[in-house]
Structures are given as structure tokens and as C-alpha cells.
Amino acid sequence: MKIQIINGPNLNLLGKRETSIYGSLSFEEFFETLKKRYPPLELHYYQSNVEGELVNKIHEVGFSFDGIILNAGAYTHTSIAIHDAIGGIKTPVIEVHISNVYAREEFRHKSLITSKCIGMMTGFGMEGYALALTYFINKNAAL
After folding, report:
1. What is the pTM of this model?
2. CA 32 – CA 39 distance, rounded (Å)
3. Please, is 15 exposed, middle or buried when counting C-beta atoms within 10 Å of its C-beta (0-12, 13-18, 19+)?
4. Among 8, 111, 118, 139, which is disulfide-ready with 72 (CB 3.0 to 4.6 Å)?
């Protein structure tokens, strides 16, 4: 099973940025942990601070991968382009947020992409990515 993890703007600073919210682990370090925890999965990771590059990656993998885990960062609340990209592909997408967006500023309470995703994980720290992977594994096993 092939799963693409896509992180949006500022998530390249995980481990350095607002550690009280996001923790002290970089995503690259956490990604290595995920690969060890889920050896049968073919995991891929991509990060960009550029909206169009995120759309291009969604298009690139959206017809050939078994799942996408997307943390669109701030674009979650602003990007109709990412919403439309998710709507235009066949691969199911799970929206992930490290922090609980509903316990933060009000502008973070509205997601423009949730309606095109099969579900959302929010507030579980980086473990939200693992929970999303578990969903894809269980869904695949049930088929």
C-alpha cells in the first residue's frame, strides 16, 4: 500500500517552531519512526510552503496512491485551490492537524478542505499521522 504524506507551509520548521504547540521533534525524525512502525507500507513524504506545489503533488499522486495524509497548514483555512485539487482526484485524503485547531484562534476553526476529505485528525500531535495510517491499513484489510 502506497501512502503519500503532504505537509504545507511552515511545517518544515517542526521541532524549532512554537515547540509548546508542535513539540521538539522534526517531521523528518518522526517520518523515520513511522517507516519503522509501519514497515509493510510504502510511505512517501513531501513538504512545501508553496500552494501551487501542494496542488501539483496532490495531482501527481491522486490517481496512483492508496491514500494521502494532508496537513495543509494555514492553507487549510484559505485555499480553494487545494479544496478543488482534492475533489478532482480518486485517492482518499485524510486531513491532519498537529494542534487542536478548535482550541486555537477562531480563524483556524474553518477548514476549506474538510468537505473533500474522508476524515480529519486534529489535536493528537504528530500521532495524528499514525492514526490516519491505521485507518488506511484497517480499511484496506476490510476489503
Report:
1. 0.93
2. 11
3. middle
4. 8
59 catalytic per annotation: no
| From 22, 45, 75, 129, active-site residue | 22
CA distance 93 to 113: 10
**Is 46 marked active-site?**
no
Q: Give Cα separations from 135 to 22, 26, 73, 98 (angstroms).
A: 23, 23, 21, 17
Query: Any residues with CB less than 8 A from the CB of 11 and at least 6 apart, and which?
Result: 27, 47, 71, 73
**pLDDT per residue as tens digits for the range 80-93:** 999 999 999 999 99
Going 48 to 51 to 53 to 56, the CA torsion angle's sign is: positive
Tens of pLDDT, residues 27-53: 999 999 999 999 999 999 999 999 999
Choosing from 45, 75, 83, 97, the catalytic residue is 97
Count CA within 13 A, CB hemisphere, residue 70.
31
